[in-house]
Amino acid sequence: MQDLVAKRFREIAPAADFVSLRLLESVQQDIGVRDDVLLPVETCLDAGAMITVFAGGGLGYAATSDLSSSGLARAAARALEWARLSAGRLVLDVSKVEMPCPQGSYESPVEIPWNQVPVSEKSDLLLRACAAAKRSDSIVSRELFLAYHQVDSLYLTANGNETRQRLHLLVPHISVTANRGSESQTRTLGQLALARQGGFELLASIDYEGRAPIIADEARELLDAPNCPSRRMDLLLSSDQMLIQIHESIGHPLELDRILGDERNYAGRSFVTLDMIGTYQYGSNLLNVSYDPLEGQFATFAFDDEGLGAERQLIIENGRLLRPLGGTISQARANTSGVACSRADSWNRPPIDRMANLNVEPGESSLQELVSSVERGVFMQTNRSWSIDDSRNKFQFGCERARLIENGKLGPVVKNPNYRGISASFWRSLKGVGNRDTFEIMGTPYCGKGEPNQVMFVGHASPVCLFGDIEVFGGES
Amino acid sequence: MTLETRDSFYALADELLGRRREGEEMRLSFQGEESDFVRFNNAAIRQPGSVRQLHLSMELIRGKRHCRAHVVLSGDRALDGSRLRDVLERLRVDLGSLPEDPYLILPDDPRSTEQVGEDRLPKAEEAVEEILDAASGTDFVGIFASGGLFKGFASSLGQKSWFSSHPFNLDFSIYAHEDKALKESLAGLEWNGATLRERLGWAREKLPILDRPPKDISPGGYRVFLAPAAMEEILNVLSYNGFGLRSHRSKTTSLLRLLENEAALSPEVTLTESTKRGLGPSFDDSGFVCPDEVRLIEGGKLTGALVSPRSAVEYDVPTNAASSGEHPRSLEMAPGDIAKDDVLEKLGEGILIGNLWYLNYSDLKNCRMTGMTRFGTFWVEGGQIVAPAPAMRFDESVYRMLGDNLEGLTREQELIMDPSTYSARSTNSARVPGAIVRDFTLTL
Predict the structure, then answer these.
(1) What is the ipTM metric for this complex?
(2) pLDDT tens readout for residues B161-189
(3) Do B259 and B198 reside in the same domain of the chain?
(4) B-chain residues within 8 Å CB-CB of A58?
């Protein structure tokens, strides 16, 4: 299909300042089990293309699932119409933007291709894990699923550039709820944080089946646990909570399109302004954040959706903000540096600035050393609630499970743990960063943003991190 | 285009249904759109474009075994037919390795419906010209979405249903400075430039208030007016896991204490899933037809639930054709008796909250939510708006804000057309009043 569409595109590409085609073909398979019953197996076969045209300083796009020559020609004509209409009325003159000239290819590493494993083997695994999670009568709900997505993309420009990429994305999920009276507690497999690139082998590497009864036991344990106390204290965050902390209060505020105001009607703006780049002390000097296309991480690719090559770059070094997250067009608008992060969630949506893999670099401390350094605090695991203001400053997060830390030792489990703070001061309270032994590679398939709306997959890797003097609170008794 | 698309779907469906083998049943669900999207920032165009997409879901059933494939269509009958025949063969192979599904159900009273909407929209370019002209000189940001939406269903039980609509939705805000802004929307089936200019004129008049020094608001309990858009955000979160039968029976609902009669809402609170007053199709993806209304909460008490066909079998109750997630699609909150024009006077001193943003549960057992104020939020004194309010975080239980602390609901409801465009443009809507609430907790 790719070669055929490429040939058609070369034939129909209109005469304009810049013309590109982005073809996406994807196969998704969802297999789920709920309370020992297999849900209908769903397969999704998608294919479509977006043509983007720059003309006279304006730009336009048109997306279609009709990949015939006439379908592509209609899309190109419509994109050209939009480009002409927007010329002189666009937020920038795109004739001044130098678009990348990419050549290359990429494929996620895979040991056991998903499609080589029969559906029955996958459903049997899910049914076994589901049965293993029924640890007692207090377990009232067990939901497990495996979502696999293969995405083939072809990016072409009329002046001869070309990239081909194939991503294999796997999202494993387990959720177990325990109940007593009017109280229910749910524990999950890191919400969806174990999302990675790869094949069927990923399930063994995370001991998917073995985790189910542990998750169930932790859900039951929470029913008997007291509420998390409410007071200011030290806060130790696991990697699967650091994921959301990085995402919401570093990733989004640094997206250039938010800084430039594009998202103000929907996802919001940013407390970060362009004049902060290069000088702003974002966090304590322990904070080092990278944009990193790590092998196997969920949002790794070689080129973004406008052809910009992905390479590892530090975003924050020793707490100081070095560069924002913005693709080619935003970089030109803001006259600043950025990274390869112009991304679209499918063929039917235009690329916008989206964080990809954004990771906190490991530090020096072992988990034991971090715990030992805390006189009074709490260790929170696995996000279950997230909320932040439209400038990405005032946040509040809730976790599934926590353990108190007293006099340098991990203590009892507490339920309904929450904390709140302000991004601009929170990262400056970072006082301990776990070493590589505590570093976990994670991701999530659900990041919503953009008008029209797009849901994007992102990656976040982090060690365990310790923050000082944070407002912590629990549920109502 | 509408009837042409419908006829093409029916013809494709006839061909596929004709390829069934003995003992096989089939359900086909079609979804399509021809949309124009124009995004604005600083009263200029950011990204203009068009999207044409067609998708078909094919479910093959043999006895109690079934599986589904969702396939993109090109619109070319021969090409799509060929691709779907291959998919059908693949479903046959998959079906052989799957166990029986005890919760599979087919409609025992298959009914066909048809809702054909007329296309009364102007070309998107014409609307864009008017928007740019009307917004000139303001810091206008938002999105204009318009065009045809299509949904179809056909099954081997003889059903054929069709829905088409041609709505537009201009969802926008106007900024005064930094995070101080007013939000508005203009949506419907008929574009009216005069209404747009009226809305923008109203916003221009209000903007100077946002330039006043903001009121310093400390954490604590405040008397507030939740405008309909803010109330809809609260109901949206409640809809995520509050009203589905599955969430009730599996004890995962956020309204578990209400379900267990340990908590109550104000007698003023009545919530109904009102398909007949909604703007979307009246049939679901598996051929069931929605009743006109499903009463969910009446007089503060939980009286009903949204029941998907699957839950209907699992829990042995009749279905009301709820989606698989059992979320409302056209939720209606009954109005109260406060006249909209009397709201500020009744509020006296407190906060007028125009919108809420990024809500989530902070304590599921107590149905406590947190979120932020955003857009059009003001400090009110002596029944007058006196200053803009800073973005504040709230953390409050639904049992309090829609329970003992609910002072009243407005007589007027607002129709809110969902501007959501994830994957495709939404046809969901809600009708909600505003509410005066005392001791509403702000925390940060």
Answers:
(1) 0.96
(2) 999 999 999 999 999 999 999 999 999 99
(3) no
(4) 45
Q: Quick check: is B16 in a domain?
A: yes
Domain at B185, CATH number: 3.30.2290.10
Q: Which domain holds residue B53?
A: 2-210
Six-digit token string for A225: 């646990």
Percent of chain B exceeding pLDDT 70 equals 99
Which residues, in sequence order, are CB contacts of B24 under 8 Å at separation 6+? B60, B61, B62, B156
Instruction: Check whether residue B240 and residue B376 sit in a common domain.
Output: yes
Q: How far apart are CA B293 and CA A216, in angstroms?
A: 38
Q: Is the pLDDT of residue A218 over 80?
A: yes
Could you say which residues from 158 to 217 on chain B have a Cβ atom under 8 Å away from some Cβ of chain A? 171-173, 175, 178-179, 181, 183
Q: Is the residue at B215 inside a domain? A: no
Residues of B in contact with A75 (CB under 8 A): 50, 52
Q: Does B417 touch chain A (CB under 8 A)?
A: no
Two tokens, residue B315: 């829990």
Name chain A contacts of B56, Cβ cutoff 8 Å: none
Query: How far is residue A339's CA from residue A211's CA, in Å, rounded to a whole number?
Result: 36
Contact A64 B53 (CB under 8 A): yes
B364 near A CB under 8 A: yes
A-chain CB neighbours of B396 within 8 Å are none
Q: Of B162, B186, B210, which residue is a domain's last? A: B210
Average pLDDT over chain B, rounded to an integer: 96
* Collapsed DSSP state (helix, strand, coil) of residue A347: coil
Q: What is the mean pLDDT of residues B5-34?
A: 96
Mean pLDDT of chain A: 97
* pLDDT interval class at B76 (50, 70, 90): confident
Find, among A312, A333, A324, A340, the residue nearest to A278 by Cα. A324
The nearest CA of chain A is from the CA of B337 a distance in Å of 32
Answer whether B227 touches A (CB < 8 Å): no
Q: What is the pLDDT of residue A476?
A: 87
Q: Indicate the CATH number of A2-224 among 3.10.180.10, 3.40.47.10, 3.30.2290.10, 3.30.450.20.
A: 3.30.2290.10
